[in-house]
Amino acid sequence: MAQQNYSGAAIYRCNGNEATTPSESLYTCNGQFSSGRAFLIFTAKSPYVTVAAIANLTLSDQAEISRINNITTSRVLPEGQEVVVPVECSCSGRSYQATITYQIQPGETYFLIADNTFKGLSTCDELKHANTYRETSLLAGQKLRVPLRKRSITTSPPLPPPVSLKSKPKRAPLIVGITAGAFFLLISLLVLLFLSWKKRAQVADEIKKATRNFGSRSRIKDHEYRGTFKREVLAVKKNSGNAEYEVKMLYKINHFNIVRLHGFCQDKDDLYLVYEYMANGSLRDWLNRRGSQHTKSWYQRMRIALDVANGLLYLHNFANPAYVHNNVKSSNVLLDGNLRAKITNFSLAKEANCSDTKRIVGTRGYMAPECLGAGPVTPEVDVYAFGVVLLELITDEFPVIEQDGGGRLLSTSVAALMESLNAETDLCSFIAYGLAGNGGTKYALQVVKLSLSCLTQDPSDRPDMIEVVSILQKMYSIIHTPH
């Protein structure tokens, strides 16, 4: 429930101009409990290269650090080794955080402390916000309050130490032992296979029951169905292809603006993927709905745009490894009951900058020019497609406009319109119904300029998602009241 928000590169800056609020990069305090255990990754660096030094710096328990990482308290760690450190987080204002005390060393500044000792755990702006010292008055020996923030992780119990064989056993007992062990292992494997098969059959039956055997009344569209699992409504996607890569990827990432995978089940030739249910369907469906234009305000449209941008920002800059969605389009953006947007369908996703000899994938109207040739899959592909989604959001038009028995790209039409002498007037008649009034044309011009920068032919000239989020965040803050 405590979803971390992302503010792009602003969290690394310390000039006071870009970051909005320190809590923007923290976990929102909206969970069931006001405090709880969390884990952070600390990278060993002199003088913090022992369990005692790290525990003292982070106000953590030495014994817990030793147990979790399977290292002794006296061991000197090599610089660069990552150490899992348990900390206690509690509500501080609107955010969960753990706060520790740090003694300033000679010559250190807020930036050096954030970038060296606490790189990735705290930021320059957060240090400034938590302390009353000015940058120019930092002195050696002063104590700073340091708010820590880091993605939660789960840890496995440490493995037992390897057994040391000091003497050679006799040959006959060894053969008997190996034979008995192999037989026991075979029996255990057969039992596990049977239990696994039985469990899969039970889960498949549960999915069929929840979706009324994939009946028409449960169908959302195509091969997607709605099902009720223990009073929770979820979406089930029936997939006959290989979704192993998508499943593995979704299990490694977690973000509010990415549709969550609850689980999956293999049943003969079918693979069932169970996702969170999005009550308002796809963005494309929402834009198509007529008669409800009064609900499609600038506020809602810009919040949707910012949601999608934040999801892509996470994939490109914060997921490890970084990913490219490779099929961004309005039908792959889903809306929940509160019209919050989440990205779905990662069947074509790739690790960023991986080589791909078969790049001609995607949907007409959204594909960047470089997709027509072989080469690395880069985040700029998603940036281009997002530019098209922005145009859909303000025009309600399809990415390919049908006219005179043919089709013209929405992006081409808008680009041509912006080159006319009466661009602002022409745009006013092109944007969606009800958006022109109350300064709406001004907003539309800003969105179109951002969109066309994303649609630049040369990938290197396109903005990255950090810049896109920054621009949309400023626009969204201006349009903060629903119309």
Structure in words:
The chain is α+β, with helices and mostly antiparallel strands and 483 residues long. The protein has three domains: 8-148, no CATH class; 188-277, Phosphorylase Kinase, domain 1, CATH 3.30.200; 283-478, Orthogonal Bundle (Transferase(Phosphotransferase), domain 1), CATH 1.10.510. Helix content is 35%, strand content 19%. The protein is built from 13 helices and 18 strands. It has helices spanning 51-58, 62-69, 110-117, 124-130, 171-210, 244-252, 283-288, 298-318, 380-395, 410-418, 423-430, 440-454, 465-478; strands spanning 27-28, 35-43, 82-92, 95-103, 143-148, 219-221, 224-229, 232-239, 261-267, 270-276, 323-324, 333-335, 341-343, 350-351, 354-356, 375-377, 400-403, 406-409. Strands 1, 2, 3, 4 and 5 form a five-stranded antiparallel β-sheet that branches. The radius of gyration is 27 Å and the shape is globular. It starts with 26 loop residues before the first strand and ends in a 5-residue tail after the last helix.
Compact overview of the structure:
This protein is an alpha+beta fold and 483 residues long. Helices cover 35% and strands 19% of the residues.
CATH architecture of the largest domain: Orthogonal Bundle
Work out the number of β strands: 18
Question: What fraction of residues sit in β-strands?
Answer: 15-25%
Helix vs. strand class: alpha+beta
CATH superfamily of the largest domain: Transferase(Phosphotransferase) domain 1
* Count, helices: 13
- Main sheet summary: 5 strands, antiparallel
List keywords for this structure.
about 20% strand, 5-stranded antiparallel sheet, 13 helices, Transferase(Phosphotransferase), domain 1, Phosphorylase Kinase, domain 1, about 475 residues, alpha+beta, globular
